[in-house]
Each structure stands twice: as C-alpha cells, then as structure tokens.
Design a protein that fits this description.
alpha/beta; Spore Coat Polysaccharide Biosynthesis Protein SpsA, Chain A; two-stranded parallel sheet; 10 strands; 11% strand; globular; disordered C terminus
C-alpha cells in the first residue's frame, strides 16, 4: 500500500472527528442540502435500490432446464499461477463430471514457476505454458484462446479459478441451458468452499450465497442478463476468439459483459443448477488487496464503457445495457456512501442541518428502514435456506443473523481502505495482486468442511464475535 494511502486511511477519520467536535464547540451550523440530497440520490439510485429491486424479482425462483442429451463440446480452462497447493481442486472435480468424456477437455493455463504444471499433468489435465511468467489471468486466457481455439470452433469454453471445486453436473447443466434457452454465454451459481473456516469466510459465504440467490436470480428475471463473476462461466468459443483481445482491465469478467452486449448483442444467462465453490481469503489484509484490485478494474471499465452502454442502450431500447452502465458506477457509489458518514455524524452532532423530506417525517423513516434492511436484512433473506448451516428454526436464525452481522463488520473494515488504496492504483493496468490460495479440497476435505459448518452449535452462533462480509 502506498504510504500516502495508509496515512489517509488512518488520518482522515481522526481529522473528521476532530473537526466536527471543534465546530460543535464553537456553535457552528451549516446547511448541507446541496451536498446531502445529490449524494443520497446517487447512492440509492446506483447501488441500494437496484440490489433491493433484484431481490424482489428473485422471490420467484428460476425453473431448472429440462434434461437434454449430451451434445455440446466443452473445453474447460483453469488459469493458474503458482497454484500447486490447490490445483487439484478443479482438475479432480472437472474430470469427475457426469458428462461424456469425449465431449470435454480440461486444460491448465500455467504462467508460474512452481510444480503446478507437473501436478496438473499427473492428475490427468492437459497443460499449456505461457511464454513468460506472471501473465495475469486475462492475458493467460488470451494466449490460451489464440493457441487452443480455431476459426469455426463450435465448442464452449468454461473458465474456472485454480482454487475452485466444481459440481459434478456443471457441464450437463450448461448443455441443458444451451439446448433449452439458446444461451451463448452463461454464469453458474457462485458458492464458497471454505465458508466454515473463520468469521471472515463466514461473512463472505453469507454475502456470496445471498448474491447468487437474489442478485443474479433477480437480474435474470428482470433483465435476462446477469454478471459474469470471474469464475464458473461458460461462453461460445467463437465469441471469445472475436472479442477477448479487446479486454483492457483487471476485471475481465464485467468488462466481457459490456463487450458482448455492445458488440454482439449477447446477454449472459444464469444457470443456478451448476455450482462452483470458491476459496475465500482467511485474513483482512488479503481481502483488502483483492477488493482494491476489483475496484481499480471496475473503475477502468466504467471509464471505457459507461457512456457507450448508456448511448447504445438508449438507441437500441435495451434496458439491460443501461442498467449495466449504472452497475459500472458502483465503485463511485461505494466511495460516496462512505463519504456520507461525516455528513450523518455532523447532523447527529448538530453541526450540519438539512431541510426537506429527509429531515423528518414519514419519508425519512421510510428511507431509514430501507437502509437498515439493506445493511442487515438482505443477507438474512438470501442466506436463510442454506442447508449447510444445519439446525432447526431458532438455531438457524441465530447463525444467519450472526453471519449477516459478520458481513457488516467485514465491510466496514475492508471496503474503506480498499477504496482509498484504489484511488492511488487505478491508473495501473497490470494484475496488481495475486490472491494466495491454500485449500486443497479433496472429496474428503470438502466433506469435512461442510460437516464443520453443520456442527457449528447454537452457543457459537450466539457468542459475541466481531464479524465480516
């Protein structure tokens, strides 16, 4: 982290608190309507209301696609940089797919220096080594697409991270979706491999499952266009040959969303029957660095594609493109939402004043209720039916509430420093940071992890712990 970013993270809160108390002691009063209302409107319009709106659409679940005879061919690609500790996860689970072996291949795209390639070959995968080390994910995939795909290729490319475990019905579910709905690009259900490890992974488990169940389902129900989540996605080989070389940022997933919609009119379908289990960070520092990279890439995607998505969405009458443009502004909404904390603190201290509907009365109470539900209730609703939690009604309720509290504490600890750091790194176009992975999920290890989640007792659920997202 740049020293100036670290200084700002530590110094800004202290400076704000000091300034507010000094102003209060001197009896200062400021009208802030011109700042407060635009800030409020932007955060709600770009971030809060879309998420809650998609939640409402998700209340009607997506019906599974009808089973179709295996027909489509797949090439499964796993970009890997020094992943010898975890590369067995995707390889074992992909080679165990309940799908005809002659209809799919498993490739590891290796750009590191350790024994990942040797382990992958020993487990039965094919390996493609990049010309130099440290390519980064999107450049490694670009190299693989140029080497392994060919003109007129009728296969589908499925992409996974090196720490993933994949449900054994993944390829069959993708085949069914292609046959039933004609999807050309698809995203699976994003779940968590190590959700029971500590309070951080519990928080991320809660938020990740909630997002897959409600945010992606709601987007599919309302717009027929979900977000690519970085892993567990599948796309026509010909589309990737045509468009992947245009990728410019570290967040190739959401950038591909925009490119496909703009250049080929392709929306991304959702296949919740197929699951991938992703390893989540075990400590705050890794989480901050990971989110810093996401925010840098996300902001760069907004720079390149926001206005194009708005213009083309209006020209074509495509609401999904307009909403995608709005989604690209989420990093800025996140940043502004944290900047509202001093405004709210100043209002509570009497230093700042606002007039109008949000100053008092039913409108103020309505939006306060919306904010409270967004912060605490959203994850509770989304995570409630998670079978791995185990327990009866009361025990499950305690666990869900606790995990939801974890998500809030995690967000407070992680997102502000990640956003400040991103401000100093957004100009960089390289990979910025590689997330370390450690969980070697053999079938026995995965079963043990899930069993540990079930065995969490009610006493632990009620214990006063600090928490995550």
């Amino acid at each position: 982290m740049p020293p100036i970013a670290a200084a700002l993270i530590a110094g800004i809160p202290a400076a704000i608190v000091t300034a507010l108390y000094v102003l209060r002691m001197h009896g200062a009063r400021f009208e802030i309507d011109s700042v407060y209302y635009p800030t409020f409107a932007f955060v709600y319009a770009v971030w809060i209301l879309p998420i809650l709106g998609f939640m409402l659409f998700s209340l009607r679940p997506i019906r599974p696609n009808a089973h179709a005879a295996p027909k489509h061919r797949f090439i499964c690609m796993v970009p890997a940089y020094n992943e010898e500790r975890v590369i067995g996860n995707p390889i074992r689970s992909l080679l165990a797919q309940k799908y005809p072996k002659e209809l799919f291949e498993v490739w590891v795209i290796f750009d590191g220096t350790d024994a990942t390639a040797e382990i992958a070959e020993r487990l039965g995968a094919k390996v493609l080594v990049t010309p130099t080390n440290g390519y980064g994910k999107h450049r490694a995939l670009d190299y693989a697409f140029r080497k392994l795909l060919h003109p007129g290729d009728d296969r589908y490319v499925a992409v996974f991270d090196a720490d993933n475990t994949v449900s054994d019905n993944f390829l069959q579910a993708m085949n069914d979706a292609i046959e039933a709905r004609g999807f050309r690009c698809m995203q699976s259900f994003h779940d968590v491999l190590n959700g029971a490890d500590n309070w951080i992974t519990k928080a991320l488990w809660c938020s990740c499952v909630s997002s897959s169940r409600m945010y992606l389902t709601g987007r599919m129900r309302s717009l027929s266009n979900v977000l690519i989540c970085g892993t567990g996605w599948c796309c026509e080989a010909e589309l990737l040959r045509k468009h992947w070389s245009h990728i410019k940022t570290q967040t190739e997933d959401i950038e591909l969303n925009g490119i496909l919609a703009l250049e080929s009119g392709v929306h991304v379908g959702y296949v919740p029957e197929a699951h991938i289990y992703d390893e989540k960070p075990l400590n705050i520092w890794v989480s901050i660095r990971q989110r810093m990279r996401w925010m840098c890439g996300h902001a760069r995607v907004a720079y390149y594609y926001f206005f194009r998505c708005v213009w083309e969405g209006m020209r074509r009458g495509d609401l999904a493109l307009i909403e995608l443009a709005s989604y690209y502004l989420v990093p800025f909404a996140l940043l502004i939402s944290f900047l509202t904390w001093p405004l709210l603190a100043g209002i509570s201290l009497g230093v700042f004043r606002i007039a109008g509907p949000l100053a008092s009365g039913p409108v103020e109470h309505l939006f306060e209720a919306i904010a409270v539900f967004f912060i605490f209730g959203y994850q509770i609703v989304g995570f409630w039916n998670t079978k791995e939690l185990g327990g009866g009604g009361f025990t499950r309720a305690c666990r869900v509430v606790l995990y939801s509290l974890y998500t809030c504490i995690f967000a407070i600890l992680v997102w502000p420093p990640a956003l400040v750091w991103a401000l100093f790194s957004v100009a960089k176009s390289d990979w910025l940071y590689h997330t370390p992975h450690v969980s070697d999920a053999t079938e026995e290890a995965l079963l043990a992890q899930r069993t540990a989640a079930v065995r969490v007792n009610a006493a632990t659920a009620l214990a006063p712990q600090a928490a995550t997202n």
